[in-house]
Structure formats: structure tokens, C-alpha cells
Design brief:
Helices cover 30% and strands 24% of the residues. The chain has helices at residues 6-11, 59-64, 113-118, 127-149, 208-218, 254-275, 277-286, 291-299, 308-317, 334-344, 394-403, 412-416, 432-440; strands at 17-30, 34-40, 48-53, 70-79, 87-98, 153-154, 160-161, 173-174, 201-203, 220-228, 241-250, 304-307, 348-354, 370-378, 382-389, 425-431. It has an eight-stranded mixed sheet. It has a five-stranded mixed β-barrel with strand order 1-2-3-5-4. A three-stranded antiparallel sheet has the order 7-9-8, with no helix packed on it. The structure holds 4-amino-1,4-dioxobutan-2-aminium adenosine-5'-monophosphate and magnesium ion. Magnesium ion binds at residues 383, 386.
């Protein structure tokens, strides 16, 4: 059957032509002679209006069409005499796929985002969540396009792994053992030899280590997949399951790495402005009048690059009452990151963090105190990217692994990359949902992923 989506119809100037449209009823309004039905099919944020003459349809049929129902309308596309739309459909034939009774929860407009989270199976039918989903799609596509156009290869990193890539121990275990009666070793510990993989396994916290293996052959690669962290941080910026993009580049040092991060982020913001303006304008008007300004500002900005030490100096000199006192050697808190971004009024890249607060794989600086790490801090969301140049020296890497008490034996293959044809290399991780937070202006990460996974919450 020939059908046209709402996006195409609203653009069309082929009047007095018969068209078929399918979608969900957003609102229905009665007047004396006609019924106005606003239909949406998700192809665009706007609805198309179908106008049904009361005497042309059975009363029962028109009555049964209510908000939430799914219908097909065949009719003439005409120039709309009314305000608010350029075209409308004069309905000739209406068929119903599915009715929705008065218990359909999205009757009235203006539900809170909190309420919508409780009906995650229906919330895509709202303007807000629909807009966010289209933007999320555009960003995913833009990311693949950016890397493809810049000579990167897409690597599918495993979801189940035996390693803890961040060395932070925040992993979800994967097992088929009977938790009520696990096989035991003589000393009483659990015998993982009998588990599905014959060893302890978990859901990945990062595809970086696997990406490094591929970068040592294909030079420029990236991963883009689900990532899992069992950190018990119930904040508006953390998910237990999120999507991470991790480029990894052979022969790139920390400065090259920063160049890629900055170029990619600006490309993506521009991509959103170029391709999602209807949805962004809706979100700007509805939630955050500064959204479009902020996006344009970042698109045209030059990111400020400073070292961690310079950052701490700025924080101390600010003489401000922070909840956590800024101090060299301690991790930067959200309030510190915000201050630095406000201070420079643009995205900030911070490099050369103290080795004690960063992962084992980061390249150690000559000073013996810092590592070649980089975090990209964005206005509004804080840390959007974390990355580094990698330690490519076998002796230095193994010394660090031992010093940190990490499972050296498990890391044999990662270490071998430094044994056979090692090369300087760098990479970073971009949290997709943090990017979507920035681009949509939403304030809670639960609203930018279709089905959020957070502590004590895995409904749907
Ligand atoms: O800074 P992170 O932990 O870095 C890594 O995982 C490195 N292996 C990346 C690399 O060098 N290849 O995480 C990277 C980014 C963060 O900056 C943040 O945007 C996002 O991932 N992220 C989260 N997003 C949502 N919920 C969480 N719990 C997140 N943890 C990290
Ligand atoms: Mg980080």
C-alpha cells in the first residue's frame, strides 16, 4: 500500500491529491460539522490535521476515535484554510487499527518527566520524548558518519569480558552458576572453573582494552556499544547501563587526541543543529531558552586546554566556599568542574592529572607524579569525555599494574601489545547520554535513554 509519512505530507505542495497516512491520535476536536483529528507518526514532531465531515462517517466511528487511538486516514491533501498548518487532509476513509480508552495515561498535555519515566513504554508518544529519540538517532548516525569519513574502522568490542578495563571493580557479574548452591573449592571459595566460561566474567565497563588491540593493526578504530557500571551513584548524570563511543588511534599523542575530541564534539553539535532544528526548537521553547544559544556557542568555540595543576590553582585562587576544598592530588568534584567551565565560558580540556586518581593504563609523565590524561568538561553537563595517551612501555606498564595490585596474569594479552611492535597511541571515551543531555538540554539522564537502568530500577 502506498502511504506517506507526516513529515513528507507537511512538506508537500501537491494539493488535491489522494494520500494515505497512518498514525496515533494526539487530539480530537469537534465542531458542528467537522471533527479535527491531529495525527502523529513520529516522523516529525508536528502533527497532520485530518478533517472529517460529520455526515460522511458513522457517528459511532467518529466518537470512538480518541487520544491514543491508532488510525489510518485516506483523503485529499489540501491547502489548510486554518492557522497553524499549511496542509491538511480531507478524510474520505478512516480505518481503526486500535482504540484507546479513557485509561490511556497521556490524555492531557503537560505531564512531568518523572511521571513519564513510570510509563516508559508509552512515553515515546509524547512530543518531548519523541524529539529526544529522534535527536539520539541523529547523534548515533552522526558519530558513525564522523568516524567513517575520517578513516576510522568500527570495532565491535565484546559485552562479556574477563577483564576490568578501568581497574575500578564496578562490574556486573555474568554467571550461570546456581547462586543457592555454587560449586566450591577446598578452601570454601567459589569454583569458577565450573562456570559457563570456566572463569570469572562480567559485563564490560569499557571496550578500550580491546580497541587498543585493533588500533595496533588498523591504526584508527572506534567502538560504540553498551557499557555497564555497577557504581551505586544515583545521580542525574549516571546510568548503570549507558552507551560509550571509544576511538583509539595509533601514533596519536595526547595533543592529537584532544584535537580529535574537540573536532568530533563540534561536528556533532553542528550536525544536530543542521539536522534536528525542529526538535531542538521545541525543546528550547519548552524547557530551556538558552539551549540553542549554548549549542551555537560550543559549535563556534575553541576549547580551553589547561593542566590539572593550573585548574587547581584557579580553584584555590577563586577563594570560593566549595563543599569540597580543592586540593592537589584529589579528584575534581562536579562543583569544581562547573567553576572551571564558568571561569572560561567555554568547554575546557584538563590534562595531566595526578597518577593516583587515574587508571593504570595512562601514560606516565616524566615528573613521576602525573599521567597524560584528558577530561573534556562541557557547560551544563560537566565531564563528557575521559581519555588519555596510553602507556606503551612494557616495563612501566607492568610496574604500574603491580603497584596497583591489579591481576597481572589476566592482563597477559594487553601486556603483549607492548611486547610486539608497540607504538604510541591514544584514545578517549564519550558517554552518548552525556552528549544527548547537552544537546537536548534535559537535566536528567533517565530522560535521554529509552529504558534507563539505575540502582533499584530495571522495569521495562
Ligand atoms: O571516564 P571514563 O570512565 O573513561 C573510560 O571508560 C575510558 N576507558 C575511556 C577511554 O579512554 N577509551 O568514561 C568515559 C565517559 C565519561 O566521560 C562519561 O561521559 C561516560 O563515559 N560515563 C558515563 N555515562 C553515564 N553513566 C555512567 N555511569 C558513566 N560513566 C562514564
Ligand atoms: Mg572519567
Amino acid at each position: 500500500m502506498k502511504r506517506t509519512n507526516v513529515k513528507e505530507l507537511l512538506k508537500s505542495t501537491e494539493y488535491d491529491k489522494e494520500v494515505t497516512v497512518q498514525g496515533w491520535v494526539r487530539t480530537k476536536r469537534d465542531s458542528k460539522q467537522v471533527v479535527f483529528i491531529a495525527l502523529n507518526d513520529g516522523s516529525i514532531i508536528h502533527n497532520i490535521q485530518a478533517v472529517a465531515a460529520i455526515d460522511a462517517f458513522p457517528e459511532e466511528l467518529l466518537k470512538s476515535i480518541t487520544t491514543g487511538a491508532c488510525v489510518q486516514v485516506k483523503g485529499m491533501l489540501v491547502k489548510s484554510p486554518g492557522q497553524g498548518q499549511s496542509v491538511e487532509i480531507q478524510a474520505k476513509e478512516i480505518s481503526i487499527y486500535g482504540l484507546a480508552d479513557e485509561t490511556f495515561p497521556l490524555q492531557k498535555k503537560g505531564h512531568t518527566l518523572e511521571f513519564l519515566r513510570e510509563i516508559a513504554h508509552l512515553r515515546p508518544r509524547t512530543n518531548t520524548i519523541g524529539a529526544i529519540m529522534r535527536i539520539r538517532h541523529a547523534m548515533a548516525y552522526g558519530i558513525h558518519k564522523y568516524f567513517n569519513d575520517n578513516g576510522f574502522y568500527y570495532l565491535h568490542a565484546p559485552v562479556i569480558t574477563g577483564s576490568d578495563a578501568e581497574g575500578a571493580g564496578e562490574m556486573f557479574r555474568v554467571t550461570t552458576l546456581d547462586l543457592n548452591n555454587p560449586p566450591k573449592n577446598e578452601d570454601g571459595s567459589i569454583n569458577y572453573n565450573e562456570d559457563f566460561f570456566g572463569k570469572e566474567t562480567n559485563l564490560t565497563v569499557s571496550g578500550q582494552l580491546e580497541a587498543e588491540t585493533a588500533a595496533m593493526a588498523l591504526s584508527k578504530v572506534y567502538t560504540f556499544g553498551p557499557t555497564f557500571r555497577a557504581e551505586n551513584s544515583n545521580t542525574p548524570r549516571h546510568l548503570a547501563e549507558f552507551w560509550m563511543i571509544e576511538p583509539e588511534m595509533a601514533f596519536y599523542d595526547i595533543n592529537d587526541n584532544m584535537d580529535v575530541a574537540e573536532d568530533m564534539l563540534k561536528y556533532l553539535v553542528k550536525y544536530a543543529l543542521d539536522n534536528c532544528l525542529d526538535d531542538l526548537t521545541f525543546l528550547n521553547n519548552m524547557y530551556d531558552k538558552e539551549l540553542l544559544n549554548r549549542l551555537n556557542m560550543v559549535k563556534d568555540s575553541t576549547f580551553k586546554r589547561i593542566t590539572y595543576t593550573e585548574g587547581v590553582d584557579i580553584l584555590i585562587a577563586a577563594n570560593k566556599k566549595f563543599e569540597f576544598k580543592p586540593e592537589w592530588g584529589k579528584d575534581l568534584q562536579k562543583e569544581h568542574e562547573n567553576h572551571l567551565v564558568d571561569h572560561f565560558k567555554c568547554p575546557v580540556i584538563i590534562t595531566d592529572y595526578p597518577r593516583g586518581i587515574k587508571a593504570f593504563y595512562m601514560k606516565q609523565n616524566e615528573d613521576g607524579k602525573t599521567v597524560r590524561a584528558m577530561d573534556v568538561l562541557f557547560p551544563y553537563v560537566g565531564e563528557i569525555i575521559g581519555g588519555s595517551q596510553r602507556e606503551e612501555n612494557y616495563d612501566k606498564l607492568i610496574a604500574r599494574i603491580r603497584e596497583m595490585g591489579l591481576p597481572e596474569k589476566e592482563m597477559w594479552w594487553y601486556l603483549e601489545l607492548r611486547k610486539f611492535g608497540t607504538a604510541p597511541h591514544s584514545g578517549f571515551g564519550l558517554g552518548l547520554e552525556r552528549l544527548i543531555l547537552f544537546v537536548t538540554g534535559m537535566t536528567n539522564i533517565r530522560d535521554v535513554i529509552p529504558f534507563p537502568r539505575t540502582p533499584k530500577n530495571a522495569e521495562f
